[in-house]
Amino acid sequence: MRAKLKLRSITYFEHATAMMTFDAVNDRDTPEEQRFNTQTPEGKFEISIDNPEALEQFIIGKEYHIDFTAVK
Predict the structure, then answer these.
(1) 20, part of any domain
(2) How many whole angstroms separate alpha carbon 61 and alpha carbon 27?
(3) 3-state secondary structure 2-68
(4) Which residues pair with 67 in a beta bridge?
(5) Could you state, in chain order, the average pLDDT of each consecutive group of 10 residues for the chain (72 residues)?
């Protein structure tokens, strides 16, 4: 399953750790957005990152695809 999420916020903590919060994208009326709205109409995803170089790749307000694949 693929979700389209928008980075809402980055909260920085001590020791270069940050918590990123993403929300499901559901505010547009394009064929792609309609597909994502059906699959992920609402949602929130949070992840903690402790790598400054990785954090530099993320921009608040930008949209990202996140893929979920079952582990066998």
Answers:
(1) yes
(2) 13
(3) EEEEEEEEEEECHHHCEEEEEEECCCCCCHHHHHHHHHCCCCEEEEEECCHHHHCCCCCCCEEEEEC
(4) 2
(5) 88 88 79 64 87 92 92 92
φ, ψ at 30 (rounded to 5°): -110, 160
Q: Taking the CB of residue 57, how many other CB atoms lie within 10 A of it?
A: 10
What is the C-alpha separation between 36 and 4, in angstroms, rounded? 7
Structural domain contains residue 72? no
pLDDT of 28 reads 63
List Cα–Cα distances, 68 to 1, 4, 48, 56, in angstroms: 5, 11, 17, 23
